[in-house]
Amino acid sequence: MTVNIINSVSNDTNSHIIAPTLLSKTHVVDTEEGETTAREQSESPLPIQNKKRISKSQVRNVDIIKYLMGTIAGKDKISKLLKSLLDIVKKVCLILPQYSQYIDTKRISAISTQLSLFRCIMRFGSTPYSIANLIKRIVSSGNILKSPQVIFSRLLLEDSINVYSTVFDELSLLGKLNIIKNRRFRHVISRNDTWATEVDAIYSLKKACCNYKTTQSSKFDNKAKLMNKIDVARFTLELVSNTPDLFLIKSRRLERLLSLLSSVCSAVSAILNIVRLWIMAKDQLSEKLSKSA
């Protein structure tokens, strides 16, 4: 499943329920409406502050790497890239078996599985918070029977997607750890996990496209435009990488080719995620240096 880390954040000023995030402290990703999705939270190491900074050339690359490795968001995206690259090697060997004699595909598969479990474990634990936030959103929306249009509000839809994705992501982990043993139930979890990932990717892509359209005006700087371009590109790639899992393809060769395409898209998406995190981490480190100067 695409990294899909669901940490719903309520916009209510009176909200007392904050979902645990992958971050070391609370952060804000600036948008026109001042709102963030759970995916944006999980992919932001720390907030970008629009304050005066010292020269970014003083921030060393090794410091940025160390900084990213100290955040769960950074570990998650780097793990995703490594897993995708290993999957590409394994799938190329399946398509071109003449090269498999030079590569231990079983070991590669085992490492890939461990990386997948590592990412799932890092995401585990936010379901109660996501459900609590959804309930709070419903309660704060007033009488749904009198105002049924509330059901179709964007924020309620976003919280519902968060719950759907988080629940089946965590159930999927329990299945992988063999805590859930019933095969039929595990199959249902797997299919819903795939659909949840796809729905989340579609929603995130839609929001990224809206933000991209907004940032084309001259009042936004080049960095904001670049970040939104990255968002549109990576969510498109995630959508493509998830799609083959939805279809039951009978042709083994076609299935392997589509699976390889999925892994390639996932790898490129991970690279774009890391670039995005790198830019944000560099901003944050330059801010820290300016304060200590």
Instruction: Please write the string of helix (H) and strand (E) elements.
Output: HHHHHHHHH
Q: Mean of residue pLDDT?
A: 79
C-alpha termini separation: 43 Å
What about the largest sheet? none
> What's the number of extended β-strand segments?
0
Query: Strand portion, in percent?
Result: under 5%
Q: Which structural class is indicated by helix and strand composition?
A: mainly alpha
In terms of per-residue confidence, which ranges show pLDDT below 50 for 5 or more consecutive residues?
1-42, 46-54
* Radius of gyration from CA coordinates: 20 Å
Gross morphology: globular
Task: Give helix % range.
Answer: 55-70%
Helix run count: 9
